[in-house]
Design goal:
alpha/beta, 2 domains, globular
Length: 223
């Protein structure tokens, strides 16, 4: 996403600046701090004075929590018994990233704190790596496996339900040449005009190895 300073008009039009004051929390394993965020820990990693994650969240009218599905499960079981996973309604909006790599059990675990009337935003790219599985589930003969297909990604499961969909076309990270390659070889099959306006290249530096020099030359283009 472009910064507000790079696109001031879009920032004013679409971005509510009150969001800058919303507390940011992270469910974390190692004890490290990230500027602008508050780290929350499970019981076995908390120090004296550290709040329970659920207590910290429930003390705020609005907040944002970043966590893995496993981190969410740990947060819930840290406060409630493992037999009482449901019905706590801590979250009004859940955003799940990398949905093409996330399976249904992981998605269900991440959604434990989502209120029944909450919103779900799923972000993913079915052209990227699917969930890693060891068993040949596609050939599995059991009827329940064929019916529920829990081995598939969350993205493919939801796609079959034809939900509202937004297809982003512009990349703000890739060079224009790389984006054009992906458009031509991949995303044209999805009718997505994938593109980038970035044209920055590496600074030129001398390298003794001719192969390295050729690879890192600013004039080298993706063909």
């Amino acid at each position: 996403m472009p910064s507000g300073t790079a696109t001031p008009t879009s920032s004013v039009q679409y971005f509510d600046r009150r969001l800058l004051d919303v507390p940011l929390y992270r469910m974390h394993h190692p004890r490290e701090t990230v500027e602008g965020t508050v780290a929350l820990y499970k019981k076995d990693r908390r120090k004296d004075g550290d709040p329970k994650p659920t207590e910290a969240i429930m003390a705020q009218q609005w907040c944002v929590l970043a966590a893995t599905p496993g981190g969410i499960y740990g947060m819930i079981t840290d406060r409630w018994d493992a037999k009482r996973l449901f019905g706590h309604d801590l979250c009004d909006c859940l955003v799940l990233d990398e949905a093409s790599q996330m399976n249904l059990p992981e998605a269900a675990m991440a959604a434990l704190p989502l209120a029944p009337g909450g919103r779900l935003v799923v972000v993913g790219d079915p052209r990227q790596m699917p969930p890693i599985v060891q068993h040949d589930w596609v050939a599995e003969p059991r009827r329940t496996i064929k019916e529920y297909r829990t081995y598939e990604s969350l993205y493919l499961t939801l796609e079959a339900l034809n939900p509202p969909r937004i297809a982003f076309e512009e990349s703000f990270r890739l060079h224009a040449d790389m984006a054009e390659f992906l458009r031509r070889e991949v995303y044209q099959h999805d009718n997505i005009n994938y593109h980038s306006r970035k044209d920055e290249v590496l600074e030129a530096h001398p390298y003794a190895d001719p192969f390295v020099a050729a690879v890192l030359a600013p004039s080298t283009r993706l063909s």
